[in-house]
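Task: complex structure prediction.
Instruction: return structure tokens for all chains below.
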Amino acid sequence: MTKQLFAKAATIVMIFAASLLGMSSALAQNAPIRGTVVDSGNQPVIGAAVMVPGTTNGATTNIDGKFELRVAPGTTLEVSCIGYQTKRVAAANGMTVVLEDDTELLEETVVIGYGVQRKSDLTGSVASVRQAELMDRSTTDAAAALQGKAAGVQIFNASGAPGEGASIRVRGVSSNGNSGLGPLLIVDGLKVDNIQYLDPSMIESMEVLKDAASAAIYGAQAGNGVVLITTKSGAASKGKDGNIFYNYKMNLSILGKKAEVMNADQYIDWNEQAGNFTRQSAIDNGWWDGKTVTDWASVLFGPSVSHNHTLGAQGGNDRGNYFVSLSYADQDGMVVGNKDYYKRFTAQVNADYKIKSWFQVGTNTSIERYTRGSVSEHSEYSNGDNGTSLLGALIIDPLTPVYYTSMDQMAYDLRAAAEGTKRPSETTYYKVYKNEDGYYYATSRFQEGDGGNPLVFRDRANSKSEGWNIRGTVFANLTPIKGLVITSRLGYRIAQSYSSNFVEPYFLNPKLYADNYKVSATSSQNYYYQWENFANYNVTLGRKHAIGAMVGMSYTYQDRRAVGVQLEGKDPLKGYAENFRYISQDNGSGTKTFTGTSDPNQNTQISYFGRLSYTYDNRYSIQTNFRADAFDSSKLSLKNRWGFFPSVSAGWTISNENFIKDNVSKDVLSFLKLRASWGQNGNIAVLSGYPYSTTIDYNSKQYQWDIADPSITNGSAPSGLANPDLKWETSEQLDLGIDARFLNNRLTFGMDWYNKDTKDLLMSVNPVYEVGISSTTINAGSINNRGLEFELGWQDTVGDFHYSINANFSTLSNKVTYMNKSGGERIKGAEFSNLKMKTYFEEGYPVWYIRGFEYAGVGDAGQPLYYDKNGEITDSVSDDDLKFVGSGIPTYNYGITLRADWKGLDLTIFGTGAGGNVIMPCVYRTEHPKINSLAYFYENAGKTLPTIKNMYDNVSFWSSSANLFKGDYFKIKQIQLGYSLPKNIAKKILLSNLRVYVSLDDFFTFTKYPGFDPETASTGSHNGMGLDKGSYPNSRKLLLGVNITF
Amino acid sequence: MKKIIILGISFGAALFTLASCSQSLLEIPQKGVVAYEAFYDGSEASAESATLSAYAAGIKAHNLGAAFSPHTIAPSYYVLTNAPSDDIYYGSGSPGDHVFGLEINEYRPSFGSNSDIIANDYKGFYQFIYACNLVIDNFEYGKSAQIDKNISEARVLRALAHLHLATYWGTPPLVDHILGGDARPANSDHAELMKWIVKEFDESAAYLPSRGSKDNKNGAIRLTKEAAYALEGKAQVQAGDYAGAKTTLKKVIDSKMFDLVPGSEMRNIFHRAGDGSPEKVFEFNYVNNVNLSAFGGFRHFQRNASCWWRDLKALPDQVISVIGWGGGGNPSESFVKAITENEQDSDRRKAWIISYEELLGDFSYGGDTKSKEERLMDPDRGLSAKSYYGNCGWFTYKFAPYKSDLITNSSTDTDNNTVVMRYAEVLLLYAEACAQTGETSGAGLEALNKVATRAGAPTYAALSLANVKQEKRFELYMEGYRFPDLVRWNDAATVLKEQGKCVPSFTDPFDAAKGIPHSAVIDYSSAYYNSTYGFKVGKNELMPFPFGELQLNAYNEETGEGLQQNPGWE
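Output:
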């Protein structure tokens, strides 16, 4: 902590103490001077200190902003309050003191690892998002609330399903793995695995440590950046009365952007031209009644309502602070019915207390209870075990009715199964689903394999998860001498979860059926603790030399274990009523497997870290960080265990130089600083499961030595090839930045350029096939991420009207700069059906870029043309002509927030967008040509696209860039209008604040992508970015809310 | 104040000391594993365990190859060995479905080194070889009879894998020890490789036990002396050492450890009821065991994928309800014509293939007792689709999985064994070896006629290569030998010249109202025609080495390291 902060806190405490003394021993020689302190909006300022400078004579303002003080009229009074500029005025009875808002941002502090720092002293690149930007959003996920608020921070909502957390990427993608791409998440000093549990209303601030120098204090875990979250403490109301608050919001969700699939006429015409069937033959074959038209998206998705309540209290004084809040979120998903939902109850208790002047204790604790129901997504196969697959809703033909009103409409097999009269030995356990009215769900006659009625998949599965999480820290701060704070902090997480699924058999057609029940349950329990001890020392010598030092160590331990079981069989349970659907109702006939059971898994870590900073005359700052990390033996071998992560950064505040101060007015150039930093970080998330060692998978192979006896004999074999030389994946990052404010701080500007090289990527490579081992892990690649980040802000007040515009924009260039070729020229990632267009990891290209044929237009015969490997136009391509056709990673992201308030009315408009990426809709499959597809292809056939005849079964065409779309989008995430009751009216109904608001969230999406939501387009895994396999779409929300403070 | 300072510093120091205790906190032993050296300790138990892993790898190689991937939903080894032959249409649902099999069957130009089938099989066999080398490299002869047997089993299995590789790739690298991660193996010499294979079979046989009796069912699922000799004889025939093959195969025949099952039981050879029968020389074993993973190479998805019986409204009672989710294999017109002209309704013909009318008329559906005429007028059976792609009105019955083959609680996984070699092949190989050395009568003819007689087919008056070829085609239908035999006999260029040119579909003119019964009518106007098709001399004799392998192990002219692609392939 900086000296300034201490000094300020001390001053306040002294004023406070003095004012208490002053009141009790007030001298009677002067008549009382009565006055009022108000802010620029003419609202009373509560708790402002009114002092005679240099004395202990003073008073504080009451709830109406009034004070009374016995001084001679004309005496100079100093009026101060946190958040306002201190003012000196002459005492006069009946005086009104107007305090200006403290727009001087210089004293703003930001949280950095194991400490805080004045924003003006920052030498690294840290994005800070304050609570005002996070409040009153429809999302209950802290990560999602961060979207569009900070340059260089990308938020991926891979799914819009209730309870699905957003993922954060800081400055690009620096790994080839499928996990461990997100930043390290620290909440109040506790390392957490997600921040989905954190309701945005509990957050005071979120800081993103973007550059290596800032993050280096977290060493091996910081390669993907660090997000530090501070929850509310109650300190904001210090010196005032505490308050009790209640926030309620309700939102109505409807399906957002819908995929634009072919309508019935288009679908028929497509198939006629493709030669699959004709309008007449569809009717003749009994596949279509000639009139049914179904919009499947509206069958599957409908409006839903969610509620969110938060009740809490906070307060504080010179000894301590408290913040207590209870929050309940109840979200219903858009899939019609009650299969998808998310319910969460969170309690947050934060408190600290100064027991002695040199000893403080405190705790931050959060208790979470959640339950979640889900349906399956991210698969091109419609027959998911986990409920409806959302792709099913996209590709089932529009001619199939939702349900049959007569059994005569049913296909032969389905009817046989429904009647149970044919093939009795098979149909006994088949279940044919009906709707509430007793009508059987229909299924496509055109496309047996994929055209399953999505409602059947919704109905047959019941996937639920629930659990408890307790996360918290307890800490003690010891201040033996001024400026030195020794902290000992114990953090812990205890997680208990239980998930279950009950899947019933079904029959739709001979390709889509299941004859077994599956009942599964998995229970897991995890705990984690960290013990950290660190000391901060801050001192200013000779008024110009500010020195800060921090040194510390940490020890962490994590333990995870899970037990799961699945029961599968044609008739495995004693009964099938709702209250029998548990593993324990096993009747002995089913097959039992240990699905989801894992070995107890422990991880430990020991770290030492330190920081040294020096600022000279508020002009020159330099800071260095160092961290040494060692992880347990499941990560790296003994010889490569320790990782050392240094960093250095420097800043030059030009605006504090005399040649600026003397020549340029503060009203023109308020602040100007240049920053530079360099550092190294590691990446621990890619290391797990003893990747460096080869051992014997004991009894992992099976054979049976008897022709009739079903018992198994086990054998053993090695797990792979050893690589004891495996070492840390390391990122090295250079950052140059500029911070500036102009026009009396009304215009703010920030810019950063960074270059981040990640080397020694862990990759699983294949030795030559003859070795007989499929893969081994080596350090074999490098990735470069670089980009520019801009933040621009403007704020001004015109009379009662205050407004601000804040925008951020960041670019990202991502490239694999080196790859060991012993695993082949390129590594295959995600794929779809039989298409040759897939994602690959290859030197010289973005991570998991999309490789396909390059479409060149339509030939004279309506055939597709391509550019071959030499750039010549051809209508016949071979695999040699496959090339880079795009990347799923957006190359730019931006966000813009507009705020205005006028006399209690406030308006927020917030939009965010991304672009530069491409999306491949994983819809049409030449293997199953009768599936419905995007209308785009039909509408452009014979124009910019080949004729349908040349397109429908052409794998090369579908593997070409003609099947790629720009992923650019801009979304207006929030349009919120609020009204706060004037304080004097609120006071009359015993409220200190009352705000009501209405908001449209995620309402408008601007994109050319014809599929579902471009924001959620993904296979759900890192290597499938850009392949849209039917995610749960985001919804549009109408939000109504009220915030009440007592 | 001083007190506080001292207190603070000592408190801080204490915390640091406490927490920075020894690094032993970081040692977390891995669970469920044994150290490499500790496992291969030279003991009998370890040798037996390692040998079992070799058998397990063998199952996988003969079923799925190296992996289960959605694009080779049919077992890779089945596709590789059967799809290129003239006996079947790969079929599947449509010309665009399961292209991985169709492109091989129809000799489409899209088939090449990047085929997943090729990669899966090639990888699978070398993974199998690695599992064998773990036994051979880690144990020594002379320690105990059991270990000698284990090493010999591994050598036979390793030679078998090399034999498959040599058959399809010609000059695959010989891997006779565990390779390091940086290995860059080169092509072998085909003749030398075949010699080595023969020698391995021969030397190992000495350490293996005899089957003991032809009724010893368990003798069919674990290698025996006789099985090793039978495989040796096969390798000798393939290597052109007919004199050697005659001697070796005679030993097998004279051992009396095998016999053909009666013609009436032929339909059970590839089903659970036929597991371990006297006809089985060697097969990989599966027994109903639900605790094993479905696609890990054990419980097999196998032959279910080999018959496309999907587009039918209903199926006979004894076969599983859904056949052919993943692949194809319908008898070709040329095969149907040849076998029906030769032996009409023999036991063998009816066990191997059945006509559409037989499928609808001769079997009970849902326990019905209708007459054939009634069944052929039944609107609830027959084609559910308009036409049936890759089918000339005949179906493969030989491998159609029976309900009795299903493992408990599964509708697709069956536990009938994977046959590697059966006695009929031994007899036919022997007959061929005799015919190749100019014999026209005697033991060779006797062996040939033994096979024909059992089948219920006409016997042969004399031994000739042509007769052996015909009998081998009929008897070993869809067992994966037709294509390599055609290549070996130099017949592929003629027989497969127009393979893939035209793939017929059939339709059923059935109309209950008009009294037209079910029948199969091939409509060539709606057949599927490929513009490029047929066997290419100088190319199709061998399969391409996998693209992925050549990427890793490209041939380097200077060092001579790396693999050279087979002629005609890229």
